[in-house]
Amino acid sequence: METISETVVAAHGQDGAPAGESFATLLEYWARRLGDEVAVTYLDHRAGADGRAVTLSWRELDDRVEALATRLATFAAPGERAAILARQSADYVVAFLGAIRAGLVAVPLFAPDLPGHAGRLTAVLADCAPRVVLTTTDGIDAVAGFLASTAIERPAVLAVDTSASVAAGERSWPRPEPDALAYLQYTSGSTRTPAGVMLTHRNALTNARQACDAYAIETGTTSTVSWLPLFHDMGLILGIGAPMAAGVASVLMDPLAFLERPSRWLRALSASPGAISAAPNFAYAYSASRVTEAEKSYLELSRVVSLINGSEPVLPATIAKFHGAFADCGLRPEVHRSSYGLAEATVLVSVTEAGKAPRQVTFDRDRLAAGLAAPAAPGAASTTLVSCGFPAGQRVRIADPVTGALVEPGRVGEIQVNGPNVGVGYWGLPSESVAVFGLPPIDPDSGAGWLATGDLGVRHDGELFMTGRLKDLVIVDGRNHYPQDVEQTVETHPAVRPHSAAAFAIEREDGEAAVVVVEQAKGTEADVAAAAAEIRRTVSTAHGLRPYDVVFLAPGEVPRTSSGKISRSLCRKSYVDGVLTARRLG
Question: Can you state the angle between helices 90-101 and 58-72, rounded to 10 degrees?
């Protein structure tokens, strides 16, 4: 039997995953090559405002992963699930890689004390039926109590930070097959039971290497810096996957540490030469508005290599605001890298070119809503979109979402993706897997179908522009409205807290109607009824759409995802259920 201790990393082919390779085998290779160099740094801000650095060298990380994998082998058989219920930490990295080395299917999740997500966690655990749950010593009681409160079959619970050292060469591990499952990446599931995307070693390694190529992640010259949750697709690949693929150091912090003080993220970028990081669009605007002049005096951002902006539509105003705020700190415009991706494709699909600021194009708003991307004439209502660049080693096409037929360049349609980074389906959902992952016809080259992303986009001058989500389109009186356009208009009102608006459609007896939910700006004494009336008039004038309802909430009350983004789908559900209307101001 061939073992991972008998070989080093083979040269990878086009699919990025030669037989027997995984994130865990790559860890062993880098541990041998880089030894005592730092592999993972976790900035623990619970211990103080400036954070305490917890580090693991490549050798230490490999030793701990080996010890955990050896323990896991006594609790679970290869192919069984190992769920990770822990806070962001270096221990989380150990848990994920340890599960993979033991041949288990890792399920990256979160600690049960994450506010507002207990229902989702229960649903995911019931769906994946883990044989073992991995956590830390300080979280084991909370995890055990949470599991006892559910009806799921009780798995074994292990604290990954109590493993004893294991002597080198004590155990041999079978080399994984490229198409064996590596982990389940669960989608948000804000309006339905979360779905677990099945990702193989081939999928994960391919996309990790695509990310390394796209963002210039290179051994010895760069490092990744991330506050994104490790249970999210981008957080996992940026924080663990790409570092394992390229042998680069990873600097991690908790999402709450960023939200409390965004300057922490920027100081970590300053302290990491050749830094590469990522965040959703809102985080860039949030940082620009919250970092003080005194905090900027500590920042040196000229050595940042790539700042990835993705996971929600990229707004031109956000890029301008962020660059304007930190240009004097050495930030270069060309480091902004607008990207598009989704969990079903592991994460990364397309990205703008290196060394160039992302391209922006101003389109005619009405024609874009009607499905045609045409540059706006002077004086016409317009929408400016930021390019998502070019495919990162995979194929992308635009198709009619109903018929599946390809549309002409310049026409809006559903973005569809084909490549070895695309997952193999949803865990336990064969019908949905065929519908989403296996659109006919089957591609003759890859033997796989085209992934139906559910996202709308258009090719313009060869570049991909994302226009919105199919499920988020607001369709009233037969006209399409992109919610982000409405939200940007709404947030110009002084009574609305920045980055708090959600626009969505609800079903009524006479058809769909638009609803807008916002948070009241802090420190304002505005008459919310009068402000709501003004917002209705403004939206009606700008978009030809009169909202059926405008709901003002207190700051922090608009539903968000675990990474801080506004969740339109959860807003819609909470509104229909009466939760938001019961909290409305005025």
Answer: 50
